[in-house]
Design goal:
This protein is about 40% helix and about 20% strand. It is built from twelve helices and ten strands. Strands 1, 2, 3, 4, 5, 6, 7, 8, 9 and 10 form a ten-stranded mixed β-sheet that branches. The relative contact order is 0.12.
Length: about 300
């Protein structure tokens, strides 16, 4: 190892995958061509699928494959990768997202001695359009994440100290229903311990429309209830509570549960009377619009419900 490599922390990259070989190849190519001068190792974790040995690569930028040895799903796959790596830092990347040039170097350079998690902005690719999503700030506090999920802090932008994941911060929550909102939970837990450092440049391209979970509204409902139970302080933040209640209203409307949708919409408006999700859910509950139509329109602008 050269002196330059030793001066940069080692980075392990966890890439969970589930039957998306072509997207996975694009994802790995973007990681392997990063201009990071330090040591880097990649673990591809095959969730509920046989590991494909054709992805294995030896050398200074090694690629290993393994099956998910923990709870089936995204959270268990990520933790399997963390267990398999012994690097200073851990980065996540989903198998349908792409790191842009400079992602890793810029984020590692932004690490301060007290930081445990560094994120970056993203660009959202959907329907042939690419829309940047930035936070407008360099430090993310716990209260910021109570007010908003801040989707630009996507899991594919996470860069964490492995010691924190194995210590006081803890790993990815495997009891999250359907492995949904586990990334928001990790952000909240990290920000409660120390402010999150954020590089407000779009350094990851996130592809929407390919999610395995996009239309699993029952799981979306369960995972939001899980978040409210795990982070009860959300109820005390009017803006954040209205957002979550409004989402619950929308997902209940999407599955035809009109009464529940209207109840959550009313609750959202009591927290914040201008909450737009309450209006969307009410319109969907009475049959004026379909939730899927709204989602598609929002995705074209780089937003979601």
């Amino acid at each position: 190892m050269s002196q330059q490599e030793r001066s940069w922390p080692s980075v392990g990259v966890v890439v969970p995958t589930h039957r998306r070989p072509q997207q996975l190849r694009d994802t790995l190519d973007a990681i392997l061509t990063q201009d990071y001068p330090g040591e880097m190792h990649i673990v591809v974790v095959f969730d509920r699928a046989k590991p494909d040995e054709s992805f294995v690569q030896e050398g200074p930028r090694s690629v290993r494959v393994t099956k998910n040895l923990r709870t089936p799903g995204l959270a268990g796959a990520r933790n399997t990768g963390i267990d398999a790596l012994g690097t200073d830092l851990i980065a996540f990347c989903d198998d349908d997202d792409v790191w842009l040039p400079g992602r890793l170097r810029r984020q590692v350079a932004a690490f301060s001695p007290n930081a445990e998690l560094v994120t970056c902005a993203v660009e959202v690719a959907y329907g042939g359009a690419v829309v940047p999503r930035m936070a407008g700030m360099a430090t993310i506090r716990h209260v910021d994440l109570l007010r908003s999920r801040m989707m630009m802090l996507h899991s594919s932008t996470f860069l964490l100290r492995r010691a924190a994941l194995l210590g006081g911060l803890g790993m990815v929550a495997e009891d999250a229903p359907g492995s949904q909102n586990e990334d928001w939970d990790l952000l909240l837990r990290a920000a409660r311990r120390a402010p999150i450092t954020h590089v407000d440049e779009p350094l990851v391209r996130v592809h929407w429309g390919n999610s395995h979970f996009a239309a699993r509204y029952d799981t979306k409902i369960s995972s939001l209830h899980w978040m409210l139970s795990r982070h009860p302080e959300l109820h005390g933040c009017p803006q954040g509570a209205a957002r979550v209640y409004g989402q619950l209203a929308c997902w209940h409307a999407a599955v035809g549960q009109r009464k529940d949708a209207l109840q959550w919409a009313r609750r959202a408006m009591r927290s914040k009377w201008t909450e737009p999700r309450a209006v969307i859910a009410t319109a969907a509950a009475v049959g004026l619009v379909r939730i899927e139509t709204v989602i598609s329109a929002l995705h074209r602008k780089g937003h979601g419900i």
